[in-house]
C-alpha cells in the first residue's frame, strides 16, 4: 500500500485484491498504515475473508498494517484445498514471500489458522517475529481429531434452529453465549460491498479431513518457536479443547496465556472488548 494513499483502518472498507503466484491466485485484503512488517491473519475452518471479526481487525489496524487472505481453494482464491495443513502452510509461505514480497511478518491466527501458522513457523522460523494463537492447539493434540464429529453435530443443530453454525461451534449455549454468538454473526455482516465468495462443501470437507490428519499425526517440535507468543481461548472450547491452549503455553517458552471464563471456541470474540486492546498492544511496535 502506497504511503500517499489514505490509510484505511476499517475492515469493512478494505479493498479486495488478488495476486498470482506460480499460476495460483490468492485473494486478500489489506488495511492500516504502511510498514515493512505486516500482521498476517490466518483464518479458521470454512473461513473466508468475510469471517474475521471487524472489532479485532480494526483494533489492530489502528497501528499496524493488516493482511487477511484466502487459502487456496477457499473464497476468491483459485485452486483446491490441500490435503494437509503442512501444504496449506507452504502455500501461505509462497503467498507472503513471493506474492507480497515480505521476509518478516507477525501472525494473528484463530483455530485451524493457528494450526497452519504453527506449521509455518516450524518450517520457517526466521519469517515470523510475533505470534498470536487463539482457539487452537498443537499437532497431535489430544482429542483434536474429534473436531469432525463436533462440527457436523453443531451444523445439524444450527439447521434445526435456523441459526448460523458459528453460534453453536464458537459459543456456549447459555444466555451470555447465545447473545455473544448472535452479536458476532451480525458484526460479520457489516461489510456490504465486494464480499467474498462462499466456501464450497467440497473445500469444507477437505479442510476437516486435513485437521483430522493434523490431530492424529506426530507432535511438532515447538521448542523452535522462540518468538513472543500470545495464546488465548475460552475455558470451554468444544472444537479444540481448552487444555490444548495450556499445552501450547507449556511447550512454547515464554508464551503468554489468556483463558476467558464462561466461553467457548470463540472466547476472543465473546470478550472482544477485553481481548482486542490486549492483542493490539501485544502486536504494536
Automatic annotation (TrEMBL):
Q: What range(s) does the AB hydrolase-1 domain occupy?
A: 38-268
Which SUPFAM superfamilies does the UniProt record give? alpha/beta-Hydrolases (SSF53474)
Q: List the molecular function annotations (GO) for this entry.
A: hydrolase activity
> In its keyword annotation, does this UniProt entry include Hydrolase?
yes
Protein known as: Alpha/beta hydrolase
Give one Pfam family, short name only.
Answer: Abhydrolase_1
InterPro entries the UniProt entry points to: AB_hydrolase, AB_hydrolase_1, AB_hydrolase_fold
Respond yes or no to whether keyword Hydrolase is given for this record. Answer: yes
Q: Which UniProt keywords apply?
A: Hydrolase
Amino acid at each position: 500500500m502506497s504511503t500517499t494513499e489514505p490509510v484505511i483502518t476499517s475492515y469493512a472498507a478494505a479493498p479486495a485484491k488478488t495476486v498470482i503466484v506460480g499460476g495460483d491466485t490468492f485473494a486478500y485484503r489489506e488495511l492500516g498504515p504502511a510498514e515493512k512488517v505486516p500482521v498476517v491473519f490466518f483464518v479458521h475452518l470454512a473461513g473466508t475473508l468475510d469471517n474475521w471479526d471487524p472489532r479485532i481487525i480494526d483494533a489492530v489496524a489502528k497501528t499496524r498494517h493488516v493482511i487477511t487472505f484466502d487459502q487456496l481453494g477457499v473464497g476468491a482464491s483459485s485452486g483446491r484445498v490441500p490435503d494437509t495443513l503442512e501444504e496449506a502452510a507452504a502455500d501461505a509461505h509462497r503467498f507472503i514471500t513471493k506474492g507480497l514480497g515480505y521476509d518478516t511478518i507477525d501472525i494473528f491466527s484463530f483455530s485451524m489458522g493457528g494450526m497452519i501458522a504453527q506449521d509455518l513457523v516450524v518450517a520457517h522460523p526466521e519469517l515470523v517475529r510475533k505470534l498470536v494463537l487463539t482457539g487452537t492447539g498443537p499437532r497431535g493434540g489430544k482429542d483434536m481429531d474429534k473436531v469432525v464429529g463436533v462440527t457436523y453435530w453443531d451444523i445439524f443443530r444450527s439447521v434445526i434452529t435456523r441459526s448460523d453454525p458459528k453460534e453453536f461451534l464458537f459459543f456456549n449455549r447459555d444466555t451470555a453465549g447465545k447473545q455473544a454468538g448472535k452479536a458476532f454473526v451480525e458484526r460479520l455482516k457489516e461489510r456490504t460491498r465486494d464480499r467474498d465468495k462462499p466456501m464450497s462443501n467440497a473445500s469444507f470437507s477437505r479442510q476437516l479431513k486435513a485437521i483430522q490428519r493434523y490431530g492424529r499425526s506426530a507432535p511438532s517440535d515447538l521448542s523452535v518457536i522462540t518468538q513472543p507468543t500470545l495464546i488465548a481461548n475460552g475455558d470451554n472450547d468444544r472444537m479444540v479443547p481448552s487444555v490444548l491452549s495450556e499445552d501450547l503455553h507449556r511447550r512454547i517458552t515464554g508464551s503468554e496465556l489468556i483463558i476467558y471464563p464462561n466461553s467457548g471456541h470463540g472466547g476472543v470474540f465473546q470478550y472482544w472488548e477485553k481481548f482486542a486492546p490486549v492483542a493490539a498492544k501485544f502486536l504494536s511496535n
